[in-house]
Amino acid sequence: MNVETPPARGFIRSRGMRVPRHPGITTGRIRAALRAETFERKECEAVMRVVQKGDRVLELGGGIGYVSTLIATQRQARRLVCYEANPALIPHIRRMHAANGAERIELRNALLTPEGGAPLPFYLRKNILSSSLDGTVDPGAITGTVEVARQAIGPVLEEVRPEVLICDIEGGEAELLPAGDWSSLRAAVIELHPQWIGQSGVQAVFDAMHGAGLSYFPRASHGKVVTFRRGW
To answer: Which UniProt keywords apply (predicted)?
Structure first.
């Protein structure tokens, strides 16, 4: 099944990067935010503070490829592994990486979970950014279903040994992060979704990072984007 809309030609300039135009992605508010350089601003500012040249970085939730491209081009990470569950975003992410000479990023279309398991159905919608694992939300807008692989977090962390974690997984953080061994981390930038995970979920994320020896870093935290680092 073709899971993407054909891209439009041209690029939008943002933070020194070239973002490929796409009729189903770079529209309306997103286009305006890209041009104003306010798109993912809090996450980008935190990333620029904590990622260092030569870091091993694990990104959970690749989005449109914006943050991973920023890291690759402006922080020169030694290794950058990016997970994105939405298959409709993968072609756009690859185009963005290529357009900015960031082709060495390891992009994986899979969902990380505590235990792994069989593939899960992923529901595609006309609005690409609204595609999700939840088939009960706006079922009339679903245009198709594909299966997305599940991978257990443990083996991935053993393989990558990330020094920096970037995480924006739409509420999955409360279940996934406590299941991982994050002892290799020097820093983490996590977007919280308290509207979905509640106070207990937020506490679970903080406990997971504190358990790995990281402390909350307020200078690089902005609202729901929280940053942790080892030492002071």
So the answer is: Methyltransferase, Transferase
